[in-house]
Specification:
With about 425 residues, this protein is an alpha/beta fold. The chain folds into 2 domains: about 220 residues, Rossmann fold, CATH 3.40.50; about 150 residues, no CATH class. An 8-stranded mixed beta sheet has the order 12-11-10-9-13-14-1-15. A 5-stranded mixed beta sheet has the order 3-2-6-7-8, with helices on both faces. A hairpin with a 5-residue loop joins strand 7 and strand 8. Helix 1 packs parallel to helix 2 and helix 6 packs across helix 8. The longest helix has 19 residues.
Length: about 425
Amino acid sequence: MKQQLYFIKDMEQPKKLGFVDIFRLIDDGFKQQTAGKSLVGKKIGVLAGSRGIANYKEIIKRVVGLLQAAGAEVVVLPAMGSHGGATAEGQKAVLAEYGVTEEYLGVPIVSGMEVEQVGDVNGQPVYADRNAVALDGVVPVNRIKAHTDFHGTHESGVVKMLTIGIGKQVQAEAVHRHGSKGLKDLIPQVTAAVLKRVPLIAAVAILENKFDETAHVEVLGADNLFSRDAELLVESKNLLPRIPFEHLDVLVIQEIGKNISGVGIDPNVSKRMRIEDVAAESGAPKRIVALDLTEGSGGNGIGMGIADVITERLYNKVDFNITYINTITSGFLERGFVPVKMPDDQRAISVALRTCGRPVDWESARIVVIKNTISLSKMYISPALIKEVPPEYVVEEMAVTQVFTSNGELTLPW
């Protein structure tokens, strides 16, 4: 069977901010949110998460510097629920992977998994990191974007960080036990309860464009935390990267991983949540193939269950202890299921094509190959999709005809 793919590239230039503008927005926002408040001698914790956020270490360092200049004693606290294998050392290691280290920041990173109950919501205990409770206030720093488990007024962002992130594995597991609807309803209520015991100094909200570049930074305060987190979520969804084709027969993802998405494969891109009571979006791919697991995932294979077919290479990189801790904590076991496993890329894709629900060959099949679910500016498409390429994309005239190596590995330059 003749195999060929066309390389396409998104040439649109969305808004992005350089460091001068990023730092100006942070400086001005802090000045506004801390006006009339003395931070001299206060012990303040900067909350850092486990996502790969553009310019994250530089933003956190700027926040640390502003707090120190105001006379505060600053520490950084990992606020990432059960990530990092649900261990203090693991969570500190996750931050180190993003360059967020004590050496770079010049302040201690205080990582611990112990929590303290700080309230309750309708009988549901509310927890917070014991280290955070001992402080005079916190500054969460996080990106706002669509969540991978549910859709609601508040999804991923600074409000959620003050529920799931700061509450460590205990609270992450407790909230996730209520399922998607529970996440949507409980997060703002739990955050409100947390803030009664853990004062908010300010919150730094980050938006990224579809190329994962910083598009906007805004410093929120206690008076507008919930309203702006919700409004910025709407803005962020308009900036999301997209696959510009629907009803694919096969979506091939070269790498998945926790450092790419909270569930390895971003459902907002794949259009498949793989949660028992949540249907796939209209236009979702019939089959999804995942070929490899990133080194940055630390063996966390959560989300492999979103795929239908994986390779032995991916399977062999999965640390099932870490994966199961994260999957069980989330409550969505389906995402940790092991899909059909094939020896190489070519046979994995072949299985997906043979089971996509209609008789196709390479020429007629609707196939898209992406590097991962955050790198969508470049992709490869099958001939059947050429006529549907949007005007903002350019298409290389010459098709790639050597798609696989003799060992069955996909060989596509990015």
